[in-house]
Amino acid sequence: MPADTPARYLAFADGSSLSNPGGPGGTGFVVVDRARPALRFGATRWVTDGTYAVTNNRMELRAVLEALDGLPEGEAVDVVSDSRYVVDALSKWIHGWRKKGWRTAAGEPVLNRDLIEALDARGRELRVRYSWVRGHDGHPVNEVVDALAQSAARGATGPSEANVIEALRAAAVIG
User: Fold this and answer.
1) Mean pLDDT over all residues of the chain?
2) Which of 82, 123, 143, 158 is an active site residue?
3) Domain of residue 47, residue span
4) Which residues of 80-112 are buried (b: 16+ CB within 10 A; e: fewer)?
5) Is 33 known to sit in a ligand binding site?
6) Is 69 annotated as a binding residue?
7) What confidence score (pLDDT) does residue 4 get?
8) How many domains is the chain partitioned into structurally?
9) Which among 28, 123, 146, 158 is annotated as catalytic?
């Protein structure tokens, strides 16, 4: 897929951990199908994350996994995140980590390897491009996914479908 060609799906994802590490945490995502008027969004509260501590980075990665869940194999997806960690881990660092047996440049084990490998596997089923957006800088859809993640972490009701649609319109993602 050429770099300037929009993917069929556009996904925004964000994660939050109220105490980092320790949680509770939350994830939020919005997915738009550009080929037809379809929208999916959601949020999940995480009190525990298996044997791992709930951290902001784990919630950021989980939010992307939730956004990619259920998308048809082979489709192109543009994922937008305000986490440099997510964008760099999945588009840059992962190649070196694989070559080094899942070790960092410092020789340490890669943190969150389980989620990164899950995203890598899902990314191989899809055609995923990652891009970064500055967080808390007024991007309407990023603000909505942040609110979804924060609300989920607190166990509160998050933005409504009307709020999500309003943000998508404000960002000129939909008409």
Assistant:
1) 96
2) 82
3) 9-84+117-170
4) bbbbeebbebbbebbeebeeeeeeeeeeeebeb
5) no
6) no
7) 77
8) 1
9) 146
- pTM of the entire structure? 0.96
Is 60 an active-site residue? yes
pLDDT at 5: 86
Any binding-site annotation on 114?
Answer: no
Per the structure block, which two tokens stand in for 53? Answer: 């501590």
| Cα 57 off chain centre by | 10
Give me the catalytic one of 15, 23, 25, 158: 15
At residue 8, what is the residue type?
R
Average pLDDT over residues 135-142: 96
Higher pLDDT, residue 61 or 37 = 61
Q: Of 49, 60, 78, 143, which is the active-site residue?
A: 60
The H-assigned helical ranges of 4-158 are 56-68, 84-88, 94-99, 113-125, 140-154
Asked if residue 100 belongs to a domain, the reply is no
Annotated ligand binding at 146? The verdict is yes
Task: Examine residue 38 and state whether it is found in any structural domain, yes or no.
Answer: yes
Whether 111 is covered by a domain: the verdict is: no
Residue 39 domain flag: yes
Does residue 15 carry a catalytic annotation? Answer: yes
Catalytic residue, chosen from 136, 138, 161, 175, is: 136
Angle, helices 140-154 vs 161-170, to 10°: value is 150
CATH number (domain holding residue 56) = 3.30.420.10
Identify whether 95 is a catalytic site residue.
Answer: no
